[in-house]
User: Fold this.
Amino acid sequence: MIKRAVLVGFLVAVLLAVGCGGQGSAEQGSKESCDVKDPPLFKEGVLTVATDRPAYPPWFEGSPENYSGFEGDVANEVAKRMDLPVEWVVEPFNKSYAPGAKDYDFDINQITITPEREKAVDFSDGYFDNAQGVLVLNGNPAADAESIADLKDARLGAQVGTTSLDFINETIKPDEEPKIFDTTNDAKSALESGQIDAIVTDLVTTVYLRDFEIDGSVVVGQYPRNEQFGMLFEEGNRLVGCVNKVLGQMKEDGTLSELQETWLQDYLSVPILKE
Amino acid sequence: MTTRGTGPGDRLDPEEAGPGRGSKMLGGRAVLVSSASTVLFFAIIAIIVALAPGSGIVAERFFDPFHLKQSFLGTPSTPSVAGAFLLNVEIFAISEVLILILALVIAVVRQIPGPVFFPFRMVAIAYTDLFRGIPLILVLYMIGFGVPGLGLAGLSYLSDVTYGIIALVLVYSAYVAEVYRAGIESVHESQNAAARSLGLTRWQSMRFVILPQAVRRVVPPLLNDFIGLQKDTALVSVLGSIEAARAAQIYSASEFNYASYVVAALLFVLITIPLARFTDRLIARDKRRRQAGALA
Assistant:
């Protein structure tokens, strides 16, 4: 009998505890209402910015406490214009859209803005126009490709989670199912060992791989797909408004193009693939 | 808890827990209490999850019916999780057969007596030690990216799925060989002695007396390893091919929704449950047979 009473008491306690827990309410407001002088921040007095690790050049350069590089400096500039210091934290891409509160202000990690993704998170305005690039080894038949159609019979590889796969499936439509790898490093191994003919990544990464990672490789071309990278925010975070205002200024006064020139100039001069 | 009986989830002895039999042995009151406690137990879990402050967003991110369905079927830009799961089944079916054969060979080689066969025993022991120790993912990389890099005719130009199967067979054979060995060593030495005294050769004794008893005893742990194998087929995706877990990952990254993983998990569970019930039945049948033999 005593045991039963204990059990019932326990159940009541659990139900009460659960009932009380259910009353969280998120503070929401329109994006435009963000005041750049007094932005809603994750941590008072500092802009907490997340990216994945390892972070790759030229998007990020330098130490993880003090990134520069294109994306690093875009975040630094945004913070500077909001009169805030930056604190960098690590956020794996796969976790960036997990439910629940985020422990940073925004994530900047070459994330392409798409309508599907916008249902789960909020994006800033785009800060970079992305194109897809195709990398092959010298001597491979695909190295002579001049158009999208020339790539149809190539064995293509891409990194998981990237829009490169969309580009392969929707634009190239290859005869053979593309191979998908966890990292560009694995894709590189597969390319070098002849398991695939070409790697498709965002253009900057493609050129980076050619210049620094894969000997004897060539970029056959780029293909702009009207994609933009955006910073990722928790859904409903009013800070998006502030960041967009600042980004707007940076576009207007040419700071953003300057940063692009500083960091990415060498990466963007690649012939465009014909249809 | 004051219940004497066990719920349906607590079958410790598969023989005793045939359909309905366990319940019959309990009193009516015990059945009532056990069902009530079962219902209550799951109801509480459900309530806790449902009332959690973030349950709405978690439900949407993991269990949204639209995303469950769309990831199951696939979209023009993301592969179907269900279609990709066929690759898991294919990899599993092929590897399983190869593992059963290779592991048995290793286990038997390890048991061959005599100084002449010392190097063979050495190789068998070294093999199991090595491949049980190396993480599967590393074997996958070495076979899948290393062997093609060698540029050997006949070996270096296979598909990535083939390399994946080779890696799975190498690793799992080491485990399964040990399971076989446990079975072989559990057969009493007198069985072998009796067989030899009847004029059977060493090989015949192994083939017709020891192995049949040994294999029967290790069916449950063998199937346990195969359930593990089923799930590890997902690792083959590191070599490039799109199996269910990879398809789920692609969908998830493209739609920012995890429902695809739930679909993949359900598919894995769906194929595991029949295997588990099949094991139960094998064990029950074997036990019946052995008891029948004892009575005769």
Notes: Chain B touches chain A at residues 1-2, 40, 44, 47-48, 51-54, 57-58, 60-62, 76-79, 141, 144-146, 148-149, 156-157, 160, 237-242, 246, 249-250, 252-258 (CB under 8 Å). Chain B has two domains: 1-50, 71-295.
